[in-house]
Specification:
The complex is a heterotrimer of chains A (95), B (477) and C (485).
Chain A lengths: L4 H10 L6 H18 L23 E2 L9 H6 L4 E2 L2 E5 L4
Antiparallel strand pairs in A: 2-3
Chain B lengths: L2 E12 L36 E2 H13 L7 E2 L1 E5 L9 E5 L8 E7 L2 E14 L3 E3 L6 E5 L6 E7 L6 H17 L12 E11 L9 E4 L4 H20 L7 E6 L4 E4 L12 E2 L6 E2 L2 H9 L5 H12 L3 H8 L2 H12 L5 H19 L10 H12 L5 H14 L3 H7 L8 H14 L1 H8 L5 H12 L6 H13 L1
Chain C lengths: L6 H9 L5 H14 L6 E4 L1 H16 L10 E5 L26 H8 L3 E6 L33 H8 L5 E6 L5 H7 L2 E4 L19 E6 L2 H11 L29 E5 L9 H16 L3 E5 L7 H16 L18 H12 L2 H14 L5 H21 L5 E5 L15 H5 L6 H6 L3 E8 L5 E7 L5 H14 L12
Parallel strand pairs in C: 2-3, 7-8, 7-9
Antiparallel strand pairs in C: 1-3, 4-6, 5-6, 5-10, 9-11, 10-11
Classes of the chains: A alpha+beta (95), B alpha+beta (477), C alpha/beta (485).
Chain lengths: 95, 477, 485
C-alpha cells in the first residue's frame, strides 16, 4: 500500500511535525516502502490468535496512597524553555 | 408536534486520594503553581507511572454502590493528543476494558422511580490547568492537577428531562461523598459533568443527533444548559435544519450554549494499551475488602431511618442527602430520650436553617449533637418550652455552651408550679374582663389570646400545658 | 597497560591496590582524548569522574569496598544522569540536564563504578548504524570506514577501542547485540523486566531493556548483577529475587542442548558468518553440548511486526518532546501549533520523524486493526515459537547479524535495508527473552563476527555461563583493533 502526499500531511498534523513541501515526496516514498515491508504480516494467518500487548504476564503492582514527593519546582523550571511566576509559558491558547 | 429529549451524562469524579494516581505527588487543592508536579507529572524523559492502590479501591467501592460488575482485569490505555496541559502528549485512561462495567442508579422524580443505566466507569488521570490572564499574551501552565485520579462515570441515555438529569447528578453527588471517594466540591472542579443531549419526535425509536455540552459545573447550570439545548435543537429541526454533532460550551452569563467548532481539531486519539502498565487485576479478596470498607449507602440509610426511627419519608430523605447530617441526626437521637421525629424536625429545621444562614456545612457545626439531644430532653421533661428552646439553641450556636448552663444562667427554667401559674392567670383574667365576657358568650378563640397574655407575663417560662388547663378551669368555673 | 585488562581484572587490581581509581581514570581519559575521531562520546565528564574516582579510592582504602569500586564505565546517552547532559542523540534534548539519575546509573554508582561520560547513539535509539545521531556517526574501531552498529554504537566503539572497560547500552530490537557483534564484544540484552527502565528515555516501552556492553561474558555478568533487580518505580520491573549470574559462570556444559533454528541459517546469512558460527557450535559440542534443529517458523514476520509495534509505542513516547517543559523550543513560535510543529520538526532527525509517522499511521483510526492489532497477534505467534523451541533445547543459537559491519553511508538512503539488519535480534525483544552476542571470529577483511545465544525467560545465567565457557577455550574476545592495542 502506498502513502499519498495527503496521508503524509494528515499523519504529520496528528504527530505535530511540520513537513516542508519539498520533503513530502521523500516521506511519502520512504513511508510507502516501510509499509510494504510491514504488510508482509499479511502472509501470516492470525485467525483466533489472542493479541499480545506485552511480554510480561503479570498483574499491575499497586503502591500505597502516600505522598512521597517533595516540591522540586525550581529545579524543574530551571530547564524549561519559558517560565514565569512558577508557570510554564506557551503561546496564547484560545479556548 | 411534541418532542422528546434524550439525555446521557458523563460525570468526572475526582477521587480524594492523598497522592496522585500514578505518582507520589500531593493532590491538595490550591497549592502554588507547579509545586505539586513531580518528574512523573511533568513527564520528564524516562520516568514511569506506578499505580495508586487507593484509586482502585475507590473505583471498586463505586462499582459496588451502583450495582455494577467489577472487571477482574482492566487495562490502562493511552489516549494520544497534544495539549499544553497534557504533559506526556497522552492521557492514561481506560478504554476497551474499564474497571467498572454495567450498573445502574435508581432516581426519583415527581414520585416516580427511574432506573438510569450506568454504562461504565473508568479510571484516568486529570490534566493540568491553563491560565490565560496576565502573562504578556502568553498562556501559563500549572500542572499541579495533572495526574489527579478521576473516575469517569458514563450513563446510558436514559434520561428524558433536565429535571431527571439533575436528580441523577444529585444522587451521584450524594453517593460519592457517602463513599468518601470524592469531596464533591463543584467549584473546585472535583465533580464535573458533561451532558449528551438529543431530541426526537415523540414515539420515534431512533436517537437524534446529539451534542455534547461541556463546562456545566453546578446543578443549576446543568438544568439550564440542557433546557436551553433542548429548545435550541427543537428550533433548529422545526426550522428545517438539522442538528450538527459537536461539542458545545455552556455560557452561564448569557445562559446559552455555543458551538466550539473550529476551535477543535479533528480527534484521532490512537488509543492503545499502555506498555508501562500491566493489566489491573481485581480479585475477589480485593472486592470483598473494599466492600467491607464501604459505609451504609443513602438508600439503605433512608430505609433504616423510616423503619427503625419511624421517620416520615420526606424527613428521612432530607437527612440522608448529606452523610454528616445523617450522622448528626443519629448522634442527637443517641443523646436524647425525646422521640426521633422531634430530633429529625430539629436537625432538618433549626439546625439546617442555622447552617444555611452561616453558610457552613455540617462538618463545621459549632454545636455538638449531644447538646441538641439534651436540649430536646429539657423540652420533653418540661424544663423549658419549645419556644424558649429556640432561644436557648440560638445561644448554644453563638456561645458553644451546653443547654443546661444556658437555661440556668439565664433563668429560663419553665414555671410548672401550679400556684405560681394560678397567680399569673388570676392577674391576666382580672385585666381582661372583655375577653372573659366574650368567652362566656361562646367565643372559644379568645383562649389563645389569654394564653398568650399569661405566657408574656411569665416571660415565656410558664408551662403552656398547665397554663391551658388552669385557664380553662377558671374560665369554666 | 591497564586497558589490556578486562573489567573483572581491573576491579580485582583496584581492590588489591595495584592501581588507584584516579590513575585508572586518567589512563582512560587520555585514551578517549586520543581517540576523538571515533566520535564515541557525546559528553566526557572528567571533573565529575575524578571526584567519583577519589571517593572510590577512599572506599578501596577501607573495609569491604563495593564490587565495582573505582571501575570506570560509560553510559549510553539514553540514561538520565543528574546534572550531566542526557541528549539521547537528539537535538531536541541537546540542552537537557536531567534532575535525576536512572535506576541503572544509581545502581552502578552504588556498586562503586565511576561514570566517565555518556556515549553516542542513534537518535532515540532508532537505528542500526549510529548514523542517525545529531552528534554525527560513530566509527567502528576495527575499520573507521565502517559503522559500529547501533543504536548503542558509541558504547560499543568505546569498549572495543578500550576507551573504557565496560559500558551500558539499551536494546529494543538488537541495539546491544548487533553493535557487540560488529565490534567483537560481549553484549547482553536481559529478559524484559530484569533491569529497571526508570530513567531510560523510552523508545518502545514493551521492548526496551538495558544491558552491558563488555569485553567478556564474565565482565557482562559482573555488570548485569550490579544493574539488575527490582525497582518500585518501574511497574514492569520483576520482583523475583534471582541469584547473581556470576555464581554459575563456571558450570559445565555437559548435557546442554543447543537449538539451531533452521531459519537462522538460510540463504540470508553471509557464508563467512555462518561458518564462524558453525565452528563455535563445534567448540561448544567439544565442551559437552549437543545440538538439535529447531524451528522458529514466524521469524520472517518479526521485522514487519517489530516495525509496527516499536514505532507505534515510540510515536506516543516521543509526544512529550513538545518544547513546553524542557528541551528544544523553536524560535519565535507564532502560535501553539507552530510551537509544537516546528520544535518537533527542527528537534527530531529524519529517521525519528519517519518512525513517529509510521507509528502514528499504524495507530490511527481505520488502520489500528490491520497494523497494530495484527502485529500484536504475530507477536504472540513469535513468542509461542520460542516456547515450542525451548521444549526441545536449553538455548537457541545463531548468528547475531546476517553480515559483518557495513560501510558508513551504505544503508542511510534505504531505511528498509537498514531494518533488515535486525532480523535475528528483534524477535527476542518481541518475546521478552534474554539474548547475548559474543565474538566468534573475523571475516577476511578482519571484521568481527558475532554469535547470538537466546535463552528462555530469565535464563541469563545460563547464557553467560555458555558464553564464558566458550571464551575459556577461544580468544576472539581478547582481540583488540590494531590502532587501539
Amino acid at each position: 500500500m502506498s502513502i499519498t502526499k495527503e496521508d503524509v500531511h494528515r499523519i504529520a498534523t496528528l504527530a505535530r511535525l511540520r513537513i516542508g513541501d519539498e520533503e513530502v515526496d521523500g516521506y511519502a516514498d520512504n513511508l510507502s516502502r516501510i509499509l510494504d515491508l510491514v504488510e508482509q504480516m499479511n502472509a501470516v494467518d492470525t485467525d483466533a490468535i489472542e493479541p499480545m500487548a506485552h511480554p510480561l504476564d503479570v498483574a499491575l503492582r499497586l503502591r500505597p496512597d502516600e505522598v512521597t514527593e517533595t516540591d522540586r519546582r525550581d529545579a524543574f523550571l530551571e530547564i524549561a524553555p519559558a517560565a514565569d511566576r512558577g508557570l510554564y509559558l506557551v503561546p496564547r491558547v484560545i479556548e | 408536534m411534541s418532542w422528546e429529549s434524550v439525555i446521557g451524562l458523563e460525570v468526572h469524579v475526582q477521587l480524594s486520594t492523598r497522592s496522585k494516581i500514578f505518582s507520589g505527588s500531593a493532590t491538595a487543592f490550591g497549592a502554588e503553581p507547579n509545586t505539586q508536579a513531580n518528574a512523573v507529572d511533568i513527564a520528564l524523559p524516562g520516568v514511569l507511572p506506578v499505580m495508586n492502590r487507593e484509586a482502585a479501591v475507590m473505583a471498586v467501592k463505586f462499582g459496588l454502590a451502583v450495582n455494577a460488575t467489577v472487571n477482574q482485569r482492566s487495562v490502562f490505555a493511552r489516549k494520544n493528543y497534544f495539549y499544553p496541559d497534557l504533559p506526556k502528549g497522552y492521557q492514561i485512561s481506560q478504554y476497551e476494558i474499564p474497571i467498572v462495567g454495567p450498573g445502574y442508579l435508581d432516581i426519583e422524580v415527581d414520585g416516580e422511580i427511574l432506573r438510569v443505566g450506568i454504562t461504565r466507569a473508568h479510571l484516568e488521570e486529570d490534566a493540568g490547568k491553563s491560565l490565560h490572564e496576565d502573562f504578556h499574551g502568553m498562556t501559563g501552565i500549572d500542572l499541579n492537577r495533572a495526574g489527579t485520579p478521576l473516575l469517569e462515570v458514563v450513563s446510558e441515555p436514559d434520561m428524558r428531562s433536565a429535571a431527571q438529569a439533575v436528580a441523577y447528578l444529585r444522587k451521584m453527588h450524594t453517593l460519592v461523598r457517602y463513599l468518601g471517594i470524592c469531596d464533591g466540591n463543584m467549584q473546585e472542579g472535583s465533580f464535573r459533568c458533561d451532558a449528551n443531549v438529543s431530541v426526537r419526535r415523540a414515539g420515534d425509536d431512533r436517537l437524534g443527533t446529539r451534542t455534547e455540552l461541556k463546562n456545566i459545573n453546578s446543578f443549576r447550570f446543568v438544568e439550564k444548559a440542557i433546557n436551553f439545548e433542548i429548545e435550541r435543537q427543537v428550533e433548529v429541526i422545526e426550522g428545517g435544519g438539522s442538528v450538527v454533532q459537536e461539542t458545545r460550551l455552556y455560557d452561564p452569563d448569557r445562559d446559552e450554549t455555543r458551538s466550539m467548532r473550529g476551535k477543535e481539531q479533528a480527534h484521532d486519539y490512537r488509543y492503545f494499551p499502555d506498555p508501562d502498565l500491566p493489566p489491573l487485576v481485581i480479585d475477589d479478596d480485593f472486592v470483598e475488602a473494599s466492600r467491607r470498607a464501604m459505609p451504609e449507602l443513602p438508600d439503605a440509610k433512608r430505609r433504616r431511618f423510616v423503619e427503625s426511627y419511624g421517620l416520615r419519608e420526606a424527613d428521612a430523605d432530607m437527612l440522608v442527602t448529606d452523610r454528616p447530617v445523617a450522622d448528626y441526626f443519629e448522634a442527637v437521637c443517641a443523646a436524647t430520650a425525646a422521640d426521633a421525629r422531634t430530633a429529625a424536625n430539629w436537625v432538618n429545621g433549626d439546625v439546617a436553617a442555622a447552617l444555611n444562614r452561616d453558610g457552613i456545612d455540617m462538618t463545621a457545626i459549632p454545636v455538638p449533637a449531644e447538646h441538641v439531644g439534651r436540649l430536646l430532653d429539657r423540652i420533653a421533661d418540661g424544663t423549658i418550652s419549645g419556644k424558649i428552646a429556640k432561644d436557648v439553641f440560638s445561644t448554644m450556636w453563638s456561645s458553644g455552651d451546653d443547654p443546661d448552663s444556658i437555661i440556668e444562667s439565664r433563668g429560663l427554667k419553665q414555671i410548672s408550679d401550679a400556684g405560681a401559674i394560678e397567680q399569673i392567670v388570676d392577674a391576666v383574667l382580672a385585666d381582661s374582663a372583655a375577653q372573659v365576657e366574650q368567652y362566656r358568650a361562646g367565643n372559644q378563640k379568645v383562649v389563645g389570646f389569654l394564653v398568650g397574655q399569661v405566657m408574656k407575663r411569665s416571660e415565656g417560662k410558664a408551662n403552656p400545658k398547665q397554663v391551658n388547663e388552669i385557664l380553662r378551669r377558671k374560665l369554666d368555673a | 597497560m591497564p586497558h589490556r585488562h578486562s573489567l573483572t581484572e581491573l576491579a580485582a587490581m583496584l581492590r588489591a591496590r595495584e592501581i588507584s581509581a584516579v590513575e585508572l581514570l586518567d589512563h582512560f581519559l587520555a585514551r578517549i582524548e586520543a581517540a576523538g575521531e571515533l566520535n564515541a562520546f557525546i559528553t566526557v565528564d572528567a571533573e565529575g569522574a575524578r571526584a567519583q574516582a577519589r571517593a572510590a579510592d577512599d572506599m578501596l582504602a577501607g573495609d569491604d569496598p563495593p564490587p565495582l569500586a573505582g571501575v570506570p564505565i560509560a553510559h549510553k546517552d539514553i540514561f538520565c544522569t543528574r546534572g550531566l547532559k542526557t541528549s539521547c542523540g537528539s537535538r531536541i534534548l541537546d540542552n537537557f540536564i536531567a534532575p535525576y539519575d536512572a535506576t541503572v546509573v544509581e545502581r552502578l554508582a552504588a556498586a562503586g563504578a565511576v561514570t566517565l561520560g555518556k556515549t553516542n547513539m542513534d537518535e532515540f535509539a532508532m537505528g542500526s548504524s549510529n548514523e542517525t545521531s545529531w552528534y554525527g556517526p560513530v566509527k567502528n574501531p576495527w575499520d573507521a570506514a565502517r559503522v559500529p552498529g547501533g543504536s548503542s554504537g558509541g558504547s560499543a566503539a568505546a569498549v572495543a577501542a578500550r576507551l573504557v572497560p565496560g559500558a551500558t547500552g539499551t536494546d529494543t530490537g538488537g541495539s546491544i547485540r548487533q553493535p557487540a557483534a560488529f565490534c567483537a564484544l560481549t553484549g547482553l540484552k536481559p529478559s524484559y523486566g530484569r533491569v529497571s527502565r526508570y530513567g531510560i528515555v523510552a523508545f518502545a516501552s514493551s521492548l526496551d531493556q538495558a544491558g552491558p556492553l563488555a569485553q567478556s561474558a564474565a565482565d557482562a555478568a559482573l555488570l548485569l548483577d550490579a544493574m539488575a533487580g527490582f525497582d518500585s518505580r518501574d511497574s514492569t520491573s520483576l520482583e523475583n529475587q534471582l541469584p547473581p549470574t556470576r555464581a554459575s559462570l563456571e558450570d559445565g556444559l555437559r548435557g546442554l542442548r543447543i537449538g539451531l533454528p533452521k531459519e537462522f541459517f538460510d540463504a540470508g546469512v553471509d557464508a563467512t558468518v555462518a561458518a564462524a558460527v558453525e565452528a563455535a557450535v563445534a567448540a561448544l559440542c567439544k565442551l559437552g553440548a549437543t545440538t538439535v534443529e529447531v524451528s522458529l517458523p514466524n521469524m520472517a514476520a518479526g521485522i514487519p511486526c517489530y516495525y509496527v509495534i516499536a514505532p507505534a509505542e515510540a510515536s506516543s513516547n516521543l509526544a512529550r518532546f513538545d518544547g513546553v517543559r524542557y528541551g528544544y523550543r523553536c524560535d519565535d513560535p507564532v502560535d501553539l501549533a507552530d510551537l509544537y510543529e516546528r520544535s518537533r520538526a527542527e528537534g527530531f532527525g529524519a529517521e525519528v520523524k519517519r518512525r513517529i509517522m509510521i507509528g502514528t499511521y499504524a495507530l490511527s483510526s481505520g488502520y489500528y486493526d490491520a497494523y497494530y492489532l495484527k502485529a500484536q497477534k504475530i507477536r504472540r505467534l513469535i513468542a509461542s515459537d520460542f516456547d515450542t523451541a525451548f521444549e526441545q533445547c536449553d538455548i537457541v543459537l545463531g548468528p547475531t547479524t546476517p553480515t559483518t559491519a557495513f560501510a558508513l553511508g551504505e544503508k542511510t538512503d534505504d531505511p528498509v535495508s537498514m531494518y533488515l539488519n535486525d532480523i535475528y535480534t528483534n524477535t527476542v525483544n518481541l518475546a521478552g527473552l534474554p539474548g547475548v552476542s559474543l565474538p566468534v571470529g573475523f571475516d577476511a577483511a578482519g571484521l568481527p563476527i558475532g554469535m547470538q545465544l537466546i535463552g528462555p525467560y530469565l535464563g541469563e545465567a545460563r547464557l553467560l555461563n555458555v558464553a564464558h565457557r566458550y571464551q575459556g577455550v577461544t580468544d576472539y574476545h581478547r582481540q583488540l583493533p590494531g590502532m587501539f592495542a
